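haha ok so turns out i had the wrong file open the whole time. this is the CORRECT one, sorry everyone. sequence first:
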Amino acid sequence: MTIGIVVFPGSNCDRDVQWATEGCLGIPTRFLWHESTDLSDLDAVVIPGGFSYGDYLRCGAIARFAPILSSLIDFVNSGGKVLGICNGFQILTELGLLPGALTRNQKLHFICENIPLIVSSTRTEWFEGVKCGDNIYLPIAHGEGRYQCNKDTLKKLQDDDSIAIRYKNNPNGSLNDIAGITNKKGNVLGMMPHPERACDDVLGGLDGRSILQALLAK
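then structure:
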C-alpha cells in the first residue's frame, strides 16, 4: 500500500509529509511530480502545503491546471483517498473537488502557531479515532486560510455532515469557524492545519497521526 505526495514548483511541505508518513508511521511513500499522470499504483494521494507556482494570481489557481490533477479527479471518482493540507486544501477548492474558497486572513497577517480544534464530524474514516466535540491540537501556517462560501454551500456542508474540524478560537475569520471539510463521499479531506507536523511528541504532539493513518484505512 503506497501513498503519493504531489510536488509542485514551490511546494515546501512535501518532505514534511514524507517524514511523517514514512518515517513516523512506516507507510511506503513516493513523490509525484506535477507533470506526471499515472496514479494507478497508489492507494492515496496527499497534496501538501507550500506555495505552488509561487501562489501567483491566487493560491492554487495555477496548480489546478497541472497534468496530475486531471488524473486526480478520476482517482477521486474511483474512490481513491485524497488529503489536501493548507495549499493542498486551496488547490482542492480551485479544482472543484471541494466547495468554497480560501481567502486572505481577516487581519491580513500570516499566522503560524499551534492551535486547538474541535472535531465536528466523525462520519468519515479521517476522524474515526475521536468523538464529535473532542479537542485536538495541530499547527497552522498560512496567510490565506479564511474559508468562505455562500449560504447554500454552507447549508449543504452542514446537511451532508461535511464540516470535519472547526477552530476553537477562530484565528483567521473563517466562516462558521471552518478549518477542514470533506466531500460528501468522504474520500477527500481538505484542511488548513498541518497534521504532518503533529506526529511526534517532541515536535508538536501526536494528534496528526490518526489523520494520516486514515489515508490507508479501508
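The domain at 3-216 is CATH 3.40.50.880 (Rossmann fold).
again sry for the mixup
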